[in-house]
Amino acid sequence: MQYYSTNNPNHKVSLSEAVIKGLAPDNGLYFPERIPVLPKELIEKFSKMNFREIGYAVIDALFSEDLSETQIRELVDHTLTFDAPVVKVDEDVYSLELFHGPTLAFKDFGARFCSKLMSMLHGKNDKTVRVLVATSGDTGSAVANGFLRVDGVEVIILFPKGKVSLLQEKQFTTLGQNITALEVDGVFDDCQTLVKQAFLDPELNLKLLLTSANSINIARWIPQCLYYFYAFSRLPKNGKKVVFAVPSGNFGNLAAGILAQSMGLQIDRFVAATNVNKVVPDYLHGAAFQAEPSIQTVSNSMDVGNPSNFPRLLWLYGNDENLFREMVKGYFYNDEETIDAIQKVQKKGYTLDPHGAVGYLGLGDFMNEHPGYVGVFLETAHPGKFRDVVEGALGEELELPARLAKFLKGEKKVIPMGKGFGEFKGFLENLD
């Protein structure tokens, strides 16, 4: 299958080039030339299949033209080494827990898939692949741990100084080896801009093999559709319509859900739930899409003022704005409302992280306005990754999982970086 740029459908490349390059030369996102639709009978059988078996079926439909059956099974086996349970929180309200992977965040799925696929496609090429990653928190930790010690790959992570939680920061600044962390004096959008500028710089690309492991890369984005298929197969629907509420920042996660819907999964509606960085909810309520400077919040992984995956959302709905606004409902919440949700849901016996809290709020508002649904909100990270916020909200200490607590003992190693492209380009040009 070929992949085209959202900025120019006539620009088409192979799977290998789309994955290794990450971003199209015209700054567009790569998109598959066609989306396979799974037979309804197959999707109905998913309820009797385990997570990996579902993964084999979905990834085979997407990549069988380019990968062998053995490669597909190897990819899925490497990616799905942990569960994504659907947990009841309230009547017709369920949490999809996506934090049972190595770094306790949903991005472990995409990062593990991306690292394995990139290694397969890069093969015996002698040229080192430099993976550039902008992170507002969880992407950095997931990609760093997913690519750690992968031969022929070096990862360079850009993160905004003082705007990432301590545990998130420790997960990618203490690893060393083939992982380098750049502490940028700016916000996430500045980090994202630097990465995109590097991809579009002809001098750098002549000298270095640069790629991305952000959700702009199809190898990070596409596999996230797997847990939507899995969750749907485990959800008690009782004849009701299904809505998924997705806490959103860069909007790759929501785009993956819409991809699953496009492949035949019977999700009736989506909720795009954000913090006060609300350019997409504003758009969904009728405003023109307008990027804004990002605002720091307690749900820091969603502090994105110019979401890169917005073009994919439109493309998935055939660039039909009316259809997009009909299928996806937007809501946003401030810090006070987020903290209040954490406190209220704790009384139900369930602990939310700040991002899951935003998803929970969006789901609740949608279901109040649209009765007759069973709803799933995505709990995208373990509450312990945002310990200060959650413990402050609950007035009690959280017990950290052992694999999370061990990161706190590591020594932070970073390179300070301004937000000007010249400094970043100079750093890249001096790489061996």
Written overview of the protein:
The structure is a single chain. By secondary structure, the chain is an alpha/beta fold. It has two domains: about 85-105 and about 220-395, Rossmann fold (3-Layer(aba) Sandwich), CATH 3.40.50.1100; about 110-215 and about 410-430, Rossmann fold. It is built from 20 helices and 14 strands. The protein has helices at about 15-20, 40-45, 50-65, 70-80, 105-120, 140-145, 165-175, 190-200, 200-205, 220, 225-235, 250-260, 280-285, 310-315, 320-325, 335-345, 355-370, 385-395, 400-405, 420-430, and strands spanning about 5, 10-15, 30, 85-90, 95, 130-135, 155-160, 180-185, 210, 240-245, 270-275, 330, 375-380, 415. A six-stranded mixed β-sheet has the order 4-5-13-10-11-12, sandwiched between helices. The mean pLDDT is about 95.
